[in-house]
Write a structure and sequence with these properties.
Low-confidence stretches: none
Radius of gyration: 20 Å
Distance between the termini: 80 Å
Structural class: mainly alpha
Number of strands: 0
Number of helices: 4
Shape: elongated
Strand content: under 5%
Length: 95
Amino acid sequence: MMAGFGSKTRKYPRSRGRMRSRTGPDRATLGIVGVVCAIAGFFVLGLILGPVAVVCGWFAMGRTWSWSRTRPVPALVAVVLGALDTLLAIYWLFL
């Protein structure tokens, strides 16, 4: 009767801690959100959406500024466009 007691965990590797935690958004989603914020920031609220895009891109890069081939491209695009968006918003603010 107790022979099948532990067999359930073998079918579900997530239950034994082999998979990462699924709380919060994943990196690909943060990269896409950052790109959308950066593009929208060129048209409205650039001073707010630019830094949001940079932060989302930074989190999508794994909270490090080092770049490698394994990093998602939307994360780098979000950081670059967000920084450009922020600088343009500051320029237009003081012009």
